[in-house]
Amino acid sequence: ELINLFDIEGISKTNATFDRTKLLWFNQQYIKMKSPDELTDLFINWMQKYSEDKSLYEVIKNDHLEGKLSAKLKLVQERAKTLVEVLDMIRFFYTGPININWEVEPVKKFIPDVEKDISKSVLLKNIKTDIISLHESLSEDTSLWKNDAWANKMKDLSLKYGLKPGDSFMVLRMLITGGPFSPPLFECLQTLGKGEVLKRLGR
């Protein structure tokens, strides 16, 4: 039937173009459609074949064998366009932040706008102390944490220092992930667990 319907006149004479944006969109849809088990298997097989960081692969493989990887992948499944992006987005779970750069745009935008008599380092230290206290008060069982209650306390921290409501979240994100962007922060904290969260905050 296809042979009968084929018409040479319908073929365009112009050169085909490679649309990378469309390709990435299709790839993103492909990732989104995967079940948790399918995405986990796909990611592990890809890492085994292409990862240059074999030590990280072993850590992630062990995480998979312990049944913990799927929850992390779920946090980035809707946003990642490639498996490379998946790895970049979940890397912080396995490598805690080192030498945090507080001069990145989303952070340095709000730090200088606070009271002039408080230095940047002192402000960050004070916010960090309060963030630690907040998370020390949470249950060891992260499934009992309540997103709304936690978020309200974080917003109160911002107001305490004359910041915008979301600024304390940015400070926490930097302390936990090492950068200004991450999967949903509350779910990241739950996935890491209270012990690891406090460990990172204490660095």
Q: Helix count?
A: 12
Mean pLDDT across all amino acids: 89
What structural class should be given to the helix and strand makeup?
mainly alpha
Number of β-strand runs = 0
Overall 3D shape: elongated
Separation, N- and C-terminal Cα atoms: 68 Å
Low-confidence stretches: none
The main β sheet shows up as: none
Amount of beta strand: under 5%
Question: What does this 3D model show about the protein?
Answer:
By secondary structure, the protein is mainly α. Helix content is 63%, strand content 0%. The chain is built from twelve helices and no strands. Helix 3 packs across helix 5 and helix 8 packs antiparallel against helix 9. The longest helix has 17 residues. The protein is elongated and about 75 Å long. The mean pLDDT is 89.
Which properties best describe this structure?
203 residues; mainly alpha
Walk me through the topology.
Blueprint: H1 2-5, H2 20-33, H3 36-50, H4 54-65, H5 69-76, H6 83-94, H7 105-108, H8 120-136, H9 147-160, H10 167-177, H11 185-192, H12 194-201
Concise account of the structure shown:
This protein is 63% helix and 0% strand.
